[in-house]
Write a structure and sequence with these properties.
This protein has 7 helices and no strands. The protein starts with a helix and ends in an 8-residue tail after the last helix. The chain has 2 domains: about 80 residues, RNA polymerase sigma factor, region 2, helix turn helix motif (Rna Polymerase Sigma Factor, Chain: A); about 60 residues, Arc Repressor Mutant, subunit A (Orthogonal Bundle), CATH 1.10.10. The radius of gyration is 29 Å and the shape is elongated. With about 170 residues, it is mostly helical. This is RNA polymerase sigma factor.
């Protein structure tokens, strides 16, 4: 596609972008600015357009990404910082208060899973968890170090299987 054809296609597509821009911005002036910025980016990056592909979809993607970038910039700009001794971020989600109910349920599930692990595996696992070294566990339980490692591995595997709902939480 020649530069002239590309420019003509961009001009033809600008009208079809307006409803999408209005949907994103909910304001006519902001929509016009978004369309203009999208067209400018498309024109500057015309060599990245693959001829034979859907130019409308390409323009929609540019517009959506431009809108997201502008929105994130606006949010960062509107975050106020209190310069008192406490240095609180007023608009930050980090200042929200967490409910301990979730962690309480999680701990109950972990304790229940631990209680269901056979003592042969749980004992070396708990010692390792408390900071004992493999050789210290082996000496204390009077078993070979390889057996200690194997039992800790089995305990971990059992706990992992019993706590699968929390696999992506930690």
């Amino acid at each position: 596609m020649t530069a002239l054809e590309f420019n003509y296609t961009l001009k033809e597509m600008s009208g079809s972008l307006k409803p999408f821009a209005l949907k994103l911005t909910r304001d006519m002036e902001d929509a016009n600015d978004l369309i203009q910025e999208t067209m400018l980016k498309a024109f500057k990056n015309r060599e990245k357009f693959a001829p034979g592909t859907n130019i409308k979809a390409w323009l929609y993607t540019i517009m959506k990404n431009t809108f997201i970038t502008n929105y994130q910039r606006m949010v960062r700009r509107n975050t106020f910082i209190d310069t008192t001794d406490n240095l609180h971020y007023i608009n930050s989600s980090g200042s929200s208060v967490q409910n301990d109910a979730y962690s309480s349920f999680t701990m109950e599930d972990i304790e229940q899973a631990l209680n269901n692990v056979d003592d042969v595996y749980k004992s070396p696992f708990m010692m390792y968890f408390r900071g004992f070294k493999y050789h210290e566990i082996a000496d204390k339980l009077q078993i070979p170090i390889g057996t200690v490692k194997n039992r800790i591995h089995i305990a971990r595997k059992e706990l992992k299987a019993k706590l699968t709902p929390y696999a992506h939480s930690f």
